[in-house]
Amino acid sequence: QVQLQESGPGLVKPSQTPSFTCTVSGGSLTTSYYYWSWIRQPPGKGQEWMGSIAYDGSTYYSPSLKSHTSISRNTSKNQFSLQLTSVTPEDTAVYYCNAGPNWGQGTQVTVSS
Hints:
Blueprint: E1 3-7, E2 11-12, E3 19-25, E4 36-41, E5 48-53, E6 59-61, E7 69-74, E8 79-84, E9 93-99, E10 102-103, E11 107-111
Parallel strand pairs: 2-11
Antiparallel strand pairs: 1-3, 3-8, 4-5, 4-9, 5-6, 7-8, 9-10, 9-11
């Protein structure tokens, strides 16, 4: 069974460029046929798909976040990452990595000065 573990910066200041990493075990980023995704949930709101990276390295982004988001992977470490640019308080959320039915436990990020 695929297991996912997120890591993130916790507290960041506006305009910073935080990065998140999802470490994958029980499956491979390059041979599994999942879309490896980042999803976030702001406080009091629903989940928002941010983007995905496929087994062949292709990336897909939410149109509303495309200019603000970058997803990459490190196949030697079996990790995929999310980078946000120029964050604002509206980026405060719990950030999850996901692969099909498999979810990480989420990492809280708060954007505040």
